[in-house]
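Subject: Protein entry, chain in single-letter code together with its fold tokens

Category: Structural biology, sequence-to-fold work with a learned token vocabulary.

Notation: Tokens come from a learned vocabulary of local backbone shapes, not from coordinates.

Start of record: The labelled sequence and token lines come straight after this line.
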Amino acid sequence: MRKIHPYLQIIGTFVGVVLVGTLLLVLPISSTNGRSLGFVDALFMSTSCVCVTGLSVVTVSEQISIFGKVVMALLMEVGGLSFITIAIFFFIVIRGKIGVSNRFLLREALNQSSVDGIAKLVIKIVIISVSIQLVGAAINMIPIMKMYNGDFWTSLGVSLFHSAASFNNAGFDTFGDSSMIPYADDLILNFTTIFMIVIGGIGFVVIDDVVMHRRWSKFNLHTKITLCTTALLIIIGTLLIKFTDWEKMTWLQALFTSVTSRTAGFTTYNMADLTYHTATYVVIIVLMIIGASPCSTGGGIKTSTFAILMLSIVYFGRGKKVRAFKRRISDSLIFKAFVLLAIVFLIIFVGCFLVSIFQPELNLNFSIEEILFEVVSAFSTTGLSMGVTPFLNPANRILLCLIMLLGRLGPLTVIGVVNKNWLTASSEDIQYVEENVIIG
């Protein structure tokens, strides 16, 4: 039998879930006014949920019904954990046998180096994810009950929705157009959301390693790099955002913005004000591009990729081999990191170009900085917006859907489909003579 490329199967499952979500959200029952959202808007919302982005062309709290919000929450869960992971989990629960092909597919979906213990990892991922979200929802009930004057069932629904969106780094909320800005000083809601975003963004492999070993000396290299890079990005991001907007930004807002900029999408700060604070704008753009960590619910180039890029620059300048925590980083990983960075910049550039081509009149109302912000937010699956998305025409909304899919799947996964030797190690029968090319 001709085997289907695992990357193609991964892409196919995401596209399939997006289409199913579109069919559900396009139903009149999904909107509060009993009228269909329209196919393009339903497609956009479904894609944004599955890609855990958070960009929206409608006001969720006002235009999406309870049925629609349940559909959105389920799509966020499937998008964050991946359909393959959830499907295999239920297959394990009913005591089905996981074949070699399914294990290989899981290995690629979870970005693992081998299939050993892959089934146990899936069980841990689902159990830990659900447990964290339930705990987060229970804590959020305290401030949310106050918002809704003690209405238990409404508060429970809002808490569960917010918990799912936080852990999966989706960025959707039911608080209204202003997102979490009215609650910028609420310590419980802010810190619970921050915790959920960070846990969902560090990656399931890191969570498993920390839970299993519990000692820094026993953590693998990936876990150490991820934890250190995440902590540094949060701290440095907070300091830079605070000092570049000292007058308006509180320390809590700066911390929240530093965390949410790396693919979460919630905000306690009006992003429209970034047009007056260029330095803050640049910091947030960089944080969005970096994003979360591998095998997590977030997007971006990933923290480990950013760490390898920075280490490569430092050690190249010193004329030494790249290493971290007394371990050497392979040349293939360095090459992969720089290839990924180049592809990301190309996608963002082409995305901005096409948005302007598809809708020339958009340039009359919005600057290139605002359009760039929206494209970067879509690709990094962040969901932060400067108000451009609701004004996009159908062509640009479909374009952003494609960009979100690229960002969630990962550019290397998409271009990896053309690799015909995915079952075997790469080898070339013909060897070419090496010759120098002038660089720089």
